[in-house]
Amino acid sequence: MGIYSDLKKEAYQANMQLPALGLVLFTFGNVSVADRGKGVFAIKPSGIPYKELTPKKMVIVDFEGQLIEGKYRPSSDTQTHAVLYKYWQKIGSIVHTHSTYATAWAQAQREIPIYGTTHADHLTVNIPCAPPMNDDMIQGNYEYETGFQILNHFNETKLSYEQVEMILIGNHAPFTWGSNAKKAVYNAAVLEEIAKMAWLTEQINPKSPLLKTSLIQKHFERKHGPDSYYGQEK
Q1: Which one of 21, 29, 179, 229 has the minimum C-beta count within 10 Å?
Q2: Is 227 a catalytic residue?
Q3: Which pLDDT value is given to residue 93?
Q4: Of the candidates 48, 37, 172, which has an alpha carbon nearest to the alpha carbon of residue 109?
């Protein structure tokens, strides 16, 4: 696999986490992993079942979405990944799934309200949901425009991609990202669990209030703040 062997292996291992975590069925979903120094990323080939994947089958493309190495066609979502890598310089991995609960919220065109402390352990805001793509964008380069659909929503809502590492695409499905593959996959799993909890919350009490600000700040800061005390000292 040459100079990209480690990158392909990392992307393969990250992709295999999706079915293991119950986040994908069949060929749904993909993970990409970037090498900023080489200006490329590895991504799952399109339409290949997970049980047939190997590190050698991973495809290498650049941040313009152009094929660099690989005999298979890259994921149909490659252009979306490329746009995010190009404009968001601090992300090292991207995950796209059609996980059940997160996708249900996306199809409902609803952001996920911050109802509980599990959500607040990871974010201090609702999980955003970008509005459905307009017809001009749909009729253009669809996957490329999906990247801008995400960028535009973050710009309009003034959210930070470094602080909010996940989004729902209205009528579509979720994307998550992180500084590395482990974090991006973790975020995908957390998003699905929070989506499930929020849905159940509304079934039990449709008028459930949002988590109060003091609890949001307490739970987020104890894990991520300057005086955080969750976990072990490094």
Answers
A1: 229
A2: no
A3: 98
A4: 172
| Cα distance between residue 159 and residue 183, in whole Å | 19
pLDDT at residue 226, rounded to an integer: 87
Using the structure block, give the residue that is written with the tokens 């066609």. Answer: 73
In angstroms, the Cα distances linking 218 to 80, 146, 164, 224, 226 are 35, 35, 18, 10, 12
Pairing of β 59-62 and β 40-43: antiparallel
Task: Give 234's pLDDT tier (boundaries 50, 70, 90).
Answer: low
Percent of the chain with pLDDT over 90: 94
Catalytic residue among 50, 72, 87, 121: 121
- What residue ranges do the domains of the chain occupy? 2-224
**199-221: per-residue pLDDT in tens?**
999 999 999 999 999 999 999 99
Structure pTM?
0.96
Report yes or no: 117 and 194 within 8 Å, Cβ to Cβ.
Answer: no
- Which token pair is 9? 């292996």
Q: Which of 213, 183, 208, 188 is closest to 198 using CA atoms? A: 208
The CATH code of the domain at 2-224 is: 3.40.225.10
